[in-house]
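Our preliminary data section would be incomplete without showing what the modeling component actually yields. Below, a chain of 90 amino acids is followed by its predicted structure, encoded as tokens that our downstream tools consume directly.
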Amino acid sequence: MRTLSRVRPWSAGAFALGLFAVVAATAIQTLLFQFGIELWFAVFLPAVFFAALFAGLPAGALVVAITVPLVWWAFIPPVLAFSWLRPVDI
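Predicted structure:
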């Protein structure tokens, strides 16, 4: 699979780009969360696309693997705690 940049898919740079995408999406999500906008996973979807498009599928998978527990822990109520999801959360 070809990527749009010269970042090799399994390189440290590719995974660093994926981590950067997660950090940027987390910052945006935190800012929106402070204003009462609860989009949860919607902000992270462009980060997955960005990482997969520019750094390859492994970086996109890394973003997904980090995003799911991060959003569950940091943004889904109760905040900063893991708990069973309510039907309204699902």
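Helices lie at 12-34, 44-55, 57-74. The first helix runs from residue 12 to 34. Preliminary results of this kind motivate Aim 1 of the renewal.
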